[in-house]
Task: structure prediction
Amino acid sequence: MSTNEKNFLNDSRFVAWMLTGDEELRLYWHRALEADPSLRDDFDRAVARFGKLRLHGGALSDDEFAGLRRRISRSVAGAERRRRLVRPAYWAAAACIAALAVVSIYIYVKDNAARDEVAFPGRSLTADEHLGRKEISLITERGASSFAGDVHVSVDADGRALVRELDGGKQTLVEPAATMNKLVVPYGKRSQLLLSDGTRLWINSGSVLEFPAVFADKGPRLINLLGEIYIEVAPDGDRPFYVNTEEFQVKVHGTRFNVSAYQDGDASSVVLVDGRVSVRSPSGGETVLLPNDKLSCGPELWNKQPVDVAEYISWKDGYMLLNRSPLPSVLKRLERYYNLSFGMADSIRAEAITCTGKLYLSDNPEEVMSAVAFLSSTAYSRKDGIIRIEY
Result:
């Protein structure tokens, strides 16, 4: 552990911010890192290590951590009301309380780290023949079940999967395997999945997801992804949740975020809505994300930046929120969503054309293309199954 990392972890203002999430302290640390960007890596490592704290010798569960945070917030707020403290004195009180937390907390690195850390997968899911089909496929060791339309899949505590087809409402009971199962959502389809632990996923077009029927009572929860999901992880302090992709691994305890990890040339990304996650690269580097952070990943790309998360998660609600989005990027997303093919005469010129507005993803692709043409001041025509963009 570096000296700067230790200094952060022993700084009462850092601890107070981590425990209370105060906006003024967030701005304090934001300005501090802007003034000295060389501290950013140590700061991120300190945030990640804070998630591995023990209080009085026992690991803090998510509920205990939230309770401690609430108690500190109430204590400081009460002191402010009783003593009519001005703002500097308010944070002096918060710093004292945080200092007590520092005294009570010891930071540890587990000797048996392998028990809590999941090895990087070392392999990726493949876009097998099912991804090229028109039907959604649920594949287990017992065989494959196919569904013509979009589906909602719910896995109960015994590992049985109830598949409800949205078009017509037909329900099918599937007995998944005890090992990993695979849900394949081809281009032009979408799906929702409720896992046995209560974690909920929205699965976008052109995606393959591996998941177990039931997670073990102890140890990590693990899924493997090729494609894109929006996920709301059920909190469980004793069983961290991992999402493995070819280019990175995401570790969480309970939060909401979007993961995009296609294999068609676009940069992969993680966008955090709320909570806190850490993203690990194959080389072992780790980056902590806070709400409204986006991490872009690629063979020579590893970049974190603040974003409007609505632009990255709106697809699950049936629309795309565009803010000066390059036309080729918009068409790539529509290509997956509707299983379409586009052609552009001048791709370099197309990069300069942008779209801004709310694009509703209706069941009629012609309506969507008319809206794209309006937003981008272009025209389009169809020939030999390819939509040609004219500008």
Notes: The chain has three domains: 3-109, 115-309, 318-390. The chain has ten helices and 26 strands.
